[in-house]
Every structure is written in C-alpha cells, then in structure tokens.
Design goal:
about 375 residues; alpha/beta; Urease, subunit C, domain 1; 2 domains; six-stranded mixed sheet
Length: about 375
Amino acid sequence: MGTWRLHGGLIWQGDTFKENNYLDIEVTNAEDREIHLSESHLLVPGLIDFHCHIWAPGAPVSVTDTEYISSGVVASVDAGTFGYDGWENADRLWQNSPMEIRSWLSVLPEGLTIHPNPNPTKPENISLERLVETASNAGDRLYGFKVRLGQVDAKTDRGLLNIARAAAEKSGLKIMVHLTGSGLSIDEVVEILRPGDVLTHPYHAQRGHVLDEYGKVSTSFKDAVEKGLLLDVGQGSKHFAWKVFQQAALSEGIKPHFISSDIVRNTWKKPPVSDMSYIISRFIAGGLSRDEVFASVLNTTSQFMNLKFDYVNHVLVLQADHSEVQYSDSEGDIITGHIRYNPSIHINHRRVVFTHSTKEDCIRKILKMT
C-alpha cells in the first residue's frame, strides 16, 4: 500500500480543466511514488461510455469489462445486448464487475445474442408483460427499452416502437432507439419519442437519417431535440458520417448529449471506434471543444446514470499526442486532426491498473512519504 502523488498536468474540476498542483491518491497494490506530469497530460476520474456492448455468457459480439477497464473506462451502459430471455443472468454477472455497469433492455427477447439476426422476433410475438416484469425487477440498473430499427421493414419498425412505447409507459422508463437503416421517416420516429428518450446514431447518412430533402436537419427532429430528446453519438463502424455531423447538425447547433463508442468485439482497438480515448479525440478533432467533449463523457453521462466518481478512488491520466491523425467515418470521408489522447496511468478503486512511462513523465519511486 502506498500513496501516489501526481504533480502537474490539467485536472477536470466541475466543467473544465484547471492546473493541477498535486493530487494524492492512496493505492492498495503499489508502493509510494511521485509522478511529474507535463501540461499535455489531463487528469480525469475515469471515462464513461454511454453506449457499448458488454460481454456476458451468450453474447459473443461483446467486449469484456476487463478490457474496458484496461482502456480507462470506469462505467458504461450496455445498449440492449440482452432481451428478457437473458438480461437477468447477464446483470447478475455485471453487478460483480469492478466497473459500474447499467443497461437498456432490448425489446427483442434475444437481444443481440444472435447477430446478425436473419429472423428477429416479430413485434406481435414479443411479450409486453415480460418486458414490464423484467423492468420492474431491475430497480435502478435498467434505464429502459432499446429498439433496433432497420432489421426488417417499416411495418416491423413501427411495431417495435409501439411495444417499446407501451412498455415505457407502464414501467415509467425511457426508450433508446437505434436509427440507422430504419424504413420509417425521422418524422414518424420522433413522433413516438418523448423528452428524456434517447435517439442513438443520429449522425449517420444511411436510410432513415435525420436530414430533409434539402440536406438540412429535419424540422421535426430539431423540434424534438429542443423539447428534450437526447442524442447519443453511438459511433460504431456503420453509424456516423462527418458530413451529417459537421455540415448539417453542427452548423445548425445540434450537438450530441452523449459521446459514446458502440464498441463490439470486431471494432475493439480498431478505427473508427477503437476505445473511448480515441472517441474523445476524434470529436475534438471534429469540431467540438475539449471541454464540451469531456463534459459529455464525464458530467452528462454520470448525471444520467446517477453515479459520482471522485479522485479519492479513481484517476485516469491521458497524454496528448499532437501528431497528425486521420479520422474516418462510415462513408469513407476523412478529417485530419492533430490530437490523440492515450491512457497513461489508470487507478481504479485505488488499485493501479496500469502505468505507461513516457518521455514527458518523470516517475521515481521514493521512500515512505511523511
């Protein structure tokens, strides 16, 4: 057991970064150290991923909690990997994780345990009673119901939205809607959503996008956001277009509430997803300010999850690399950035997860601090 004193760098306080004189944190699995950081280092209490897919038995497409923690993530929200056929077993496992995990319940009984799914359960065969029963037994570990549009046809999409709405009304929970590929217009999708519901993948350029016939943001979509519809990036490998994000949405002031990864097994550590520090970097390069991005990942997400992380038990150090980086999207378009944050030190629940020495670090072991 020892105390690590982190000198220098910039530390996240409130809603911005401030100069860090020093930060002391007790660790249970290492001796005393002093670590000197440069101005290119940022200190945060860990990263939070609002949309990902976390492994549990029966979900081969997902990434393990151990892998998430190794990338500096301290909390995450599983976005409908499981439906009522498997959610309770998965959640029992997640409750024992060293990472805080909450989730959305897929309205499909099988969730994403079959993916791709050639024959998803038809809306008329989904049990509203079991959706509501699972939610009522979940307490605060479940935020609501996840609808994945675009798997079959417009009629199916409409049926899935309707059963999710009914379940949400009966349980007092929210809906998260996967937009990419929907056969419905954005006007019809947002009509069924309410303030506090979440639309994920709003910046894609495929069928079911948020733009009107003139390439502008749909009026109904903009109105829904102004009334309280929440937007989740849900980066993923197929769900994001720079032209929609920058040229349409940002130009009209439509910014995401949640900046998230939608990481699955085949996008883990691979662009355009990779991990959360990569996601943070790409959106700073893409036009959002550093404070906006970190406020989304740290403040907005933790408030939604009703969780609080402090520097007593957690700290993640990110080192800035200002080399040129090419950030691609799902359409083959690329923007050039000059920022890439990489995890350098991670302490989670007072345990040192990793340290990476760099040219700018001066890490030296000392005798007992007094």
